Amino acid sequence: MPASPSTARAINDRLALRLLQQEGPLTAGQLKQLTGLSRPTVADLVERLTAAGLIAVVGEAGEQRRGPNAKVYGIVADRAHLAALDVRTEGVAVAVADLVGRVLAEASVPIGGDTGTGPAVEQAVTLVERVAKEAGADRLHTVGIGAPGLIDPSSGEFRDSTGLPEWHRRLVATLQERLPEARVSVENETNLAALAEQRDGAARDRDTFVLLWLGHGTGAAVVLDGALRRGASGGTGEIGFLPVPGTTALPSATDCEGGFHSLASSAAVVSLAAECGIPATPGEQTPAVGVVRAAVAVVRAAVGGGPGAEASPPTAPVPAARFLDALADRVAVGVASVVAILDPGCVVLGGEVGQAGGEELASRVRDRIARMTPLPTEVRATTLGGGAVLRGALLTARDRAQEELFTPGEPPPQPCRAGRPSGP
């Protein structure tokens, strides 16, 4: 069925805007080449988008032709401002960006476990307002929040959970009250980290992979055929509850102690390091990251002849190597379980601990998985670390804002000529 002229215009406008977002500023000639549309059609859409305030002339290009230089068009980045939040049990980080995703200001604030619900919410909301002011944002169009816990896929709200601070749930509602014009949404932190790794990180070449989050707690995110899978209740990837050998009890419906969490959480990592003779580094804000980073540095120095290698006795790397081997044994238990069920072909070790372990930890896990399963599986270290949550929240906020501002309610962008079918 032929597309109506209005639908064709909307599809073409959205396609041009996506290209400008992905490629950066372009001339009308470049838009014609990339879209395959006719010169008059491109001229019309450029006029429409300029009149709508979505694009503007940002410069000139000296093309190889007679006449004046070609105008270069770019998205009006300050048409909308976005906020991204990474909400943890111990604090919150905020970034404010423009419509193309360029970060204009960011900050974080710790929130102690003894802070009351009201004061904790006020600290977090005040931080959002302060960062928005520093970014020059009079109002926020979209706010994306990444937080631990289960998010109901039907309502987009937190499910009941006894393991998270009450201020997490209150924060979402309070932000919506204080920012009534903003579109506020919340997503599981590990899911957002996976989206960031797929767009900008270690899984850019993968349509199917699993992100194993190693941080304060443990989690997993599943991306199959390019789509994030949340499950019937939003609980896909709650690997902390996975019963595993090597623990003294079984997890319960309200407590993941005894599950994979007991093997690979930050507290478990610090305890394992102490058993291997590696004490926590004084002053480290995240002790698990400190011990993993220290062990990796010792092993790399000894193997690669880096700084300190000659001064260290031959036995110096042994505790560090023993610790990394033992940690890899534990992580491999979780990875092998994921591989046996999903066969993703690639597992990314994410989170702050995954980043600290880097290739030293990833290669050890990779070797173990090769012996534990016949299914070929790449094991990669994160390239974004703990920052993946904030990045993922920003990407989803940008996508949502652009979806609404560009051409809301229209089908995905494909080149289309008015009055003719857009398909084959």
UniProtKB/TrEMBL annotation:
InterPro entries: ArsR-like_HTH (IPR011991), ATPase_NBD (IPR043129), HTH_MarR-typ (IPR000835), ROK (IPR000600), WH-like_DNA-bd_sf (IPR036388), WH_DNA-bd_sf (IPR036390). The keyword Transferase applies. Residues 400-424 are annotated as: Disordered. Residues 16-65 form the HTH marR-type domain. One of its GO terms (molecular function) is DNA-binding transcription factor activity. CDD domains: ASKHA_ATPase_ROK (cd23763), HTH_ARSR (cd00090). Belongs to the ROK (NagC/XylR) family. This is Putative NBD/HSP70 family sugar kinase.
